């Protein structure tokens, strides 16, 4: 009976993992910019998230930001819409409003690198949500890096959130006379579902270790690690562990 219940728990986590893999798709953008010809220029970096489908269902998280300009520290960024955090730490931009922007004032050095973790939810509206990046003047008004963006906004890149594994990344080219260069690539992060299935296996095979791990003591250890994770998956796992202990 105990073994049967253990396999039911494992089956629950397998189904949950499959569901979360689909509903929590994500894309990782990795961006590298050569600004060596602009060293010493006062500028603002503009990270924009546009809500195209009319539903607040996506988030862009800026991580792994690095640059070599002086001074080493950064002033707090300027925000429009739903934005939390400051560079170089994580900055979360949500599509709660139509236009959401994080502006980072800085003095350019020879390079800038950063990554963007993007959720991939698309309701099928007229336009997908879009993340884009610009280098503007010190007032945040005009672009100082000019590109062949067909909309003439001079974005260095634009990423349409289409709901697919890596969305639709467009990296625009530099116009003649533009002194910066850049590259970007989109990849799929390590699937969180693997971690969920691992938890299921731990619960299942823990039945054979009950002589050492009595009652629910082992689930407290697992729950401690679950709490170190973020997202809606965490609550579901905690509920499953609680039901297991109360049975």
How would you sum up this structure, described in words?
The chain has 247 residues and is an alpha+beta fold. It has two domains: 2-22 and 192-246, no CATH class; 26-187, no CATH class. Helix content is 24%, strand content 32%. It has four helices and twelve strands. The strands form two sheets. A six-stranded antiparallel beta sheet has the order 5-6-3-8-1-12, with no helix packed on it. Strands 4-7-2-9-10-11 form a six-stranded antiparallel beta sheet, with no helix packed on it. Helix 1 (2-23) runs antiparallel to helix 2. The two termini are 12 Å apart. Residues 10-24, 192-198 and 200-247 have low confidence and may be disordered.
Provide tags for this entry.
globular, 4 helices, 24% helix, alpha+beta, 2 domains, disordered C terminus, 247 residues
SSE map:
Blueprint: H1 2-23, E1 26-34, E2 42-50, E3 59-67, E4 78-80, E5 82-85, E6 91-94, E7 99-107, E8 111-119, E9 129-136, E10 157-161, E11 168-171, E12 181-187, H2 193-205, H3 217-226, H4 232-246
Antiparallel strand pairs: 1-8, 1-12, 2-7, 2-9, 3-6, 3-8, 4-7, 5-6, 9-10, 10-11
């Amino acid at each position: 009976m105990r073994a049967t219940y253990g396999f039911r728990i494992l089956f629950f986590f397998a189904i949950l993992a499959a569901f979360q893999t689909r509903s929590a798709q994500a894309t990782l953008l990795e961006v590298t910019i050569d600004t060596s010809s602009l060293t010493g220029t006062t500028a603002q970096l503009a990270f924009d998230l546009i809500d195209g489908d009319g539903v607040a269902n996506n988030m862009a998280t800026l991580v792994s930001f690095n640059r070599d300009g002086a001074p080493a520290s950064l002033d707090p960024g300027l925000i429009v819409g739903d934005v939390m955090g400051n560079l170089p730490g994580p900055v979360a931009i949500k599509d709660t409003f139509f236009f959401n922007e994080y502006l980072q004032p800085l003095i350019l050095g020879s390079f800038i690198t950063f990554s963007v973790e993007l959720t991939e939810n698309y309701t099928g509206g007229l336009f997908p949500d879009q993340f884009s990046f610009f280098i503007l003047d010190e007032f945040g008004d005009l672009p100082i890096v000019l590109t062949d963006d067909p909309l003439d906004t001079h974005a260095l890149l634009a990423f349409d959130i289409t709901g697919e594994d890596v969305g639709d990344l467009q990296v625009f080219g530099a116009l003649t006379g533009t002194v910066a260069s850049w590259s970007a690539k989109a990849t799929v992060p390590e699937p969180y579902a693997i971690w969920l299935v691992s938890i299921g296996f731990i619960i299942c095979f823990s039945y054979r270790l009950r002589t050492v791990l009595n009652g629910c003591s082992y689930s407290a250890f697992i729950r401690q690690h679950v709490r170190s994770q973020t997202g809606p998956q965490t609550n579901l796992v905690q509920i499953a562990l609680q039901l297991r202990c109360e049975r």
